[in-house]
Amino acid sequence: MSRRRALISGITGQDGSYLAELLLGKDYEVHGLVRRVALEDPSHRLRRIAGILDRITLHAGSLESFPSLYQMVRRVDPDECYHLAAQSFVSYSFDDEFSTLNTNINGTHYMLAAIHEAAPHCRFYFAGSSEMFGKVEETPQNERTRFHPRSAYGISKVAGFDLTRNYREAYGLHASIGILFNHESERRGFEFVTRKITAGVAAIASGAKSELRLGNLEARRDWGYAPEYVAAMWRMLQQDTPDDYVVSTGESHSVREFAELAFSLAGLDYRDHVAGDPLLYRPAEVDLLIGDPSKARSRLGWEPRTRFEDLVRRMVTADLETAGPTLKVTHV
Ligand code: NAP
Ligand code: GDD
Fold first, then answer.
1. Ligand 2 mean position to 133 CA, how many Å?
2. Strand runs (DSSP E) across 95-157, as ranges?
3. Within 10 A of 79 (CB to CB), how many other CB atoms are there?
């Protein structure tokens, strides 16, 4: 039997890199969409997939160009397509609503249309987000909770959700949507609060910095571990029927709790180092996210394993190791 072929948009990102490794481990032929500039600066832009470059095939293309996506889908003829590429930083979506909406909405539409036209048998995954719940209408949030997005990013994901569901209903595409709550890892981008904190802790512990500026410390998130979340994506596409699933831990913690634990793991008190910065507050905040993953548990057999303390410990340990060989987490 020939190997199954998977196409991943956003393969250079946190989730894309873990997903590519997961699929290689299952003997898939893995293809990835990358921006042309990524190929010109591989040491930086391809760093998360550096260890698997000899086992995957990259295709330069643009999310802003339907013809480039159509040609790529025709060439690859994938069995499964994971559409992860997006402008994923909520804060930036306030600075540039236009490019966020353009990339995220049109990019998703073009991917769906390319699959529909060039590989209609292909199973499709759309990276939905708990940001779609925004100003939450119930707690915890599940697949039936109404959306109330609070940023251009959240709005773009609601549009992507509607587009994907409509391709499923109108054209019979096997298209599933993961409503993933925040998931973090040692590969998380430095702009997101968890990695900003753990990298900041390492910089302070090593003496390179003394202060970390943060915005809203009271926002609460349901933080899980990224490698487990990409496994849920794969499981969705193995189902006979496409559907939508919340993927979360069911636990919620504040940014303050994250900072307190991360600093204490390095033997530091966050109150000595964290400074509030009003410029880092968002014009509209998502105050509380906590997901109910019951459906993913019962239908997909998916279970979150890494809990909050373990997640923070992993991230702090990795950043301390990078900052200096003598830096280690302390026991708290
Ligand atoms: P990430 O690390 O920021 O990766 C985003 C990926 O999208 C990168 O590969 C990036 O490529 C690519 N991309 C961005 N703009 C692009 C463009 N204009 N053209 C082509 N590629 C573009 O994000 P992530 O954490 O892995 O998240 C993956 C997906 O899940 C995203 O859609 C995100 O919105 C969604 N999501 C994430 C979370 C989470 O907590 N991580 C939760 C819910 C949903 P470059 O490397 O070239 O920039
Ligand atoms: N980034 C950042 N930087 N956030 C801060 C800071 C700071 O200095 N200080 C406080 N925060 C707060 C934000 O206001 C927000 O309430 C919370 O920390 C989390 O921010 P991010 O880590 O940037 O993540 P996010 O929740 O906005 O978005 C992430 O999760 C979504 C799923 O809910 C991203 O991965 C999105 O792509 C994803 O869809």
1. 14
2. 123-129
3. 18
DSSP letters of 15-81? HHHHHHHHHHHTT-EEEEEE-HHHHHSHHHHTGGGGGGGGGEEEEE--TT-HHHHHHHHHHH--SEE
Quote the tokens at residue 294.
Answer: 């019951």
Q: How far apart are CA 19 and CA 28, in angstroms?
A: 11
Whole-number Å distance, alpha carbon 196 to ligand 1 midpoint, is: 17
- The yes-or-no answer on residue 129 being catalytic is yes
Q: Tell me if 221 CB under 6 Å of ligand 2.
A: yes
* pTM, rounded to two decimals: 0.98
Q: State the catalytic residue, choosing from 9, 17, 88, 129.
A: 129
- Cα dihedral sign for 280, 284, 288, 290? negative
What's residue 327's pLDDT? 82
The whole-number pLDDT of residue 332 equals 58
* Residue 95 to residue 291: CA distance in whole angstroms: 28
End-to-end CA distance of the chain: 52
List pLDDT tens digits, range 208-267: 999 999 999 999 999 999 999 999 999 999 999 999 999 999 999 999 999 999 999 999
